[in-house]
Design brief:
Distance between the termini: 48 Å
Structural class: alpha/beta
Number of strands: 18
Strand content: 15-25%
Bound molecules: dihydropyrimidine-2,4(1H,3H)-dione, zinc ion
Helix content: 25-40%
Number of helices: 12
């Protein structure tokens, strides 16, 4: 480790806050330094910085950028009308206790809704409640011409520069022509298309076969979403996006076969990103083999796979196939408000899909990834914050400990051991799929734009302290891509396609 700062060039200033003597890590470097904070920004990094109104001694601690949780469902109605258990208060508090200082949940369009109305509703939900900063990704389920040509450009101008589409779920699914239409708009507008890639027909076919043979218990959910359904859809989504040369991010990848398609596309220089989630690294389908309806607590889509898949997903995180590691926090309680909304003993097809995990995402990776030497500390920071700050257009504000950026900092105690238990978590759930796991290394002090929001295991922030962050357009510099020859006027008898 280096100590790269020796000069005291800041002694004329009084900082609002100074973090002294910590080991600071970014995605590219680790060093000992003090950090001076003024007016919500990191204004100095060095040694002997001078006076501050408040000093935090971080000796023996790791001083890291605040995590950015880029895939979570907060105060969102599902397409079946079920509201997530967390609103913007409990969801953001739980995220903060898990080392995060920024969230990007979804603003979900259901069919017939205007995008501006959807976005306004989510602003209205988040603004008075979120304790940490936030942006939104849109979900597009109704890509009419009006939505794509008129409404979407206005949304992108408001700093919401990414959206998710679904290749499955009857009320959300978009077909291939709609995907092309959406992706073409994304290309023109500088936005990123996120894709839930699973083949709907294969899932329906498997579900019908299982139900017809009376296989109804929660664990059969895992069989009803075959691996091939994921890889087929990933292949199709990437084929469409690379045809027109527009950036795409495949979310919550659970299979090695899917990851390989992403890796190949990236090798070929295409603008393709991949995301995975802790559930595919720490859990497997055996967790669903429980009495009665208990397995419902582990129903998510794509589903949990097997032990071998867990190792493969770890490998793809290590080798960079996945740049994004998100919780996919989709909190549905184990009762009639959530998992069991369709009755006390629904078939696996009627169980709400999704797992909680916004608070455990980073501690799990820190303990089992960094401390067990599967990834470096710098790679941990990249996955916690830096990569998504760049991919989703937040890096002008967040994602690293750099002079001029928001003072969003998580101070980690690398030695603190705790057993995960639902009672200790701050979300609005009564279970965690990671119950009983012993984790070493937890965030202890969380700082949001220079304000200490968690200290001594106590929340200091109040509702509404979080701010909406206007994101930049998507920058894929360095990812050359190429449009298909049929769309390229050099190779298509000079036919000009407008993008
Ligand atoms: N997709 C998600 O992204 N989250 C929860 C369920 C789903 O299908
Ligand atoms: Zn999804
Ligand atoms: Zn999700």
């Amino acid at each position: 480790m280096i100590s790269k700062f020796i000069d005291n060039k800041y002694d004329m200033k009084t900082f609002d806050l100074k973090i002294s003597d910590g080991t600071v890590a970014n995605a590219t470097e680790t060093f000992h330094a003090d950090i001076g904070i003024k007016d919500g920004l990191i204004t100095a990094i060095g040694k002997n910085l001078g006076k501050a109104n408040k000093v935090i001694n971080a000796d023996g601690k790791l001083v890291l950028p605040g995590g950015i949780e880029a895939h979570c469902h907060i105060e969102q109605e599902s397409s079946s009308g079920i509201m997530t258990a967390d609103d913007y208060y409990s969801g953001s508090v739980s995220a903060a206790f898990g080392g995060n200082t920024c969230l990007i949940p979804f603003a979900a369009q259901h069919r017939g809704q205007k995008l501006q109305n959807v976005l306004d509703v989510y602003h209205h939900r988040a603004r008075p409640k979120s304790v940490i900063d936030y942006s939104f990704h849109l979900i597009i389920s109704d890509p009419t011409d009006e939505v794509i040509n008129i409404e979407l450009p206005a949304i992108i101008d408001q700093g919401v520069t990414s959206f998710k589409v679904y290749m499955t779920y009857d009320k959300l699914i978009v077909n291939d022509s709609q995907m092309l239409k959406i992706m073409t708009a994304a290309k023109k507008l500088g936005a990123l298309t996120m894709v839930h890639a699973e083949n709907n027909a294969m899932i329906n076919w498997m579900s019908e076969k299982l139900l017809n043979s009376s296989y109804k218990a929660p664990k059969y959910h895992a069989l009803s979403h075959p691996r091939a359904a994921e890889s087929e859809a990933i292949n199709r989504a990437i084929t469409l996006s690379t045809f027109i040369d527009t950036p795409i991010l495949i979310v919550h990848v659970s299979t090695e076969s899917g990851a390989r398609i992403i890796a190949k596309a990236r090798y070929d220089g295409h603008k393709v990103f991949g995301e995975t989630c802790p559930q595919y690294m720490f859990l497997n389908a055996k967790n669903m083999d429980l009495p009665e309806m208990d397995g419902a607590q582990f129903c998510c889509s794509p589903p949990l796979r097997d032990k071998a898949s867990q190792e493969e997903i770890w490998r793809c995180l290590q080798n960079g196939t996945f740049q994004v590691y998100s919780s996919d926090h989709a909190p549905y309680r184990f009762d009639e408000t959530g998992k069991l909304h369709a009755g006390k003993k629904p078939t696996f097809t009627k169980i709400a899909n999704g797992l909680p995990g916004i608070e455990t995402r980073l501690p799990l990776l820190f303990s089992e990834g960094y401390l067990k030497k599967r990834i470096t500390l710098n790679h941990f920071v990249a996955l916690a914050a830096t990569n998504v700050s760049k991919i989703y257009g937040l890096d002008h504000r967040k994602g690293s400990i750099t002079e001029g950026k928001d003072a969003d900092i998580a101070i980690w105690n690398p030695k603190l051991k705790k057993v995960i238990t639902a009672d200790d978590l701050h979300d609005n759930m009564e279970f965690t799929p990671y119950e009983g796991m012993e984790i070493t290394g937890w965030p202890e002090i969380i700082i949001q734009r220079g304000n200490v929001i968690i200290e001594d295991n106590t929340l200091k922030a109040t509702r509404g302290d979080g701010e909406f962050i206007h994101r930049k357009k998507i920058d894929c510099t360095g990812m050359p891509g190429r449009v298909a020859p049929e769309l390229n006027s050099k190779h298509n008898f000079d036919v000009k396609f407008e993008f």
